[in-house]
Amino acid sequence: MDRYIRGLLKRELTFGGYRITGSELIFLVFAGALAVLVRVSLHSFVADDWSIYWSNWLMELEEKGFSALAEDFYDYAPPVMYLLYGITLLPVNAMTALKGFCCLLEFAGALVIAGIVAECTGSRRRARLAGIFFLFLPTVILNAAAWSQCDIIYTFLILCSVYFLLKDRTWTGMWFYGAAFAVKLQTLFIFPLLVILWVRRKVDLKHFVTIPLMYLAGIVPAWLAGRPFMELIGIYAFQGKKDRWSLSIKFPNIYQIIGNNYFLDEYVSAGMYLILGILMLVLFWMAYQNVRVTKEYVILGVVFFGMLTTYFLPHMHERYLYLTDAFLLIYVMIRVRRFPMFIAASFLTVVGYGEYLTGREPSVAYGVLAFIQLAQLVIIGLDLYHFPACEEERRELDRREEGRIPG
User: Fold this and answer.
1) How far apart (Å, rounded) are the C-alpha atoms in residues 233 and 241?
2) pLDDT attached to residue 402
């Protein structure tokens, strides 16, 4: 009997082109079931965003139908409102439906993350662990299951975009990026990387047409419903004017160090010029750097630009590192010795989540957290700086480190 069980556990199963042993399958099923249970336990939690925004938007859509999209009661991109309209047609609790949809995307995102890690490392073990780690990230669990937020939507689209870009399926990757931009303005955090890929001839100028085309496709239904076209074109600009009451909203960036409630207009202008100047210098340096654009380099670029832009841009929210954290997870599975950074990043993000969801100020000041975030940015920046000289050395070290990853 014991020999039979051991044989089943070691037996290799094939699903399409994917191979997995019986023990690995049991582990994944158990982890997936536990991830579901964690999310189900939070399904009745009502966050302020639901009470103040989402529920009111749903009420408008339920009362007036699709024609409600002609009005300006919402400030999200229209594709998100189409999702909410679809939810009003379902015979289920609206909050449960929204949370459930986003949680399903989290599982899909975990699969894409596993695929990217497998593509970058060739390691099935690292790929499995990356997907599981993502599902159990506190910020991922809290974002949708507790907060009723939908950052997984654009993050999933960006993950798909990068996956296909790594597979040299450029058009597909850029269509996914355009779709992400149609959903959330925060996709621009990593746009500078696409500029570098264009400079390195990994992306052609014609591929960038996907961005305005997908945005236009996203606003056409709302335009047909009756909302003025120019309002829809400028909806992201309207979003940027909402949060002028604070330079940093529970986010550990430079404004938590210099004071996020003083000289608001002056610091906003200065911050915009500062990040534009920094990006210009960085892009100029990267464009003339002698480096081979590997898969690891692309992932590192996403993490770097995600951290850099959010650190200097004003009006950042506690949720705006969601995308970066997902790619940081991928990066530390490629470079295992950077794994402590992933733990620190998760802690930094969860502090802002905790204050929002509980209403209690954190025991560690945001100014201190901002210095920790700066240290992380510097480390990632140095990794990018030393990338050309250390590529082979890193590969050898990571091969040694792989044996230390828990199975």
Assistant:
1) 15
2) 55
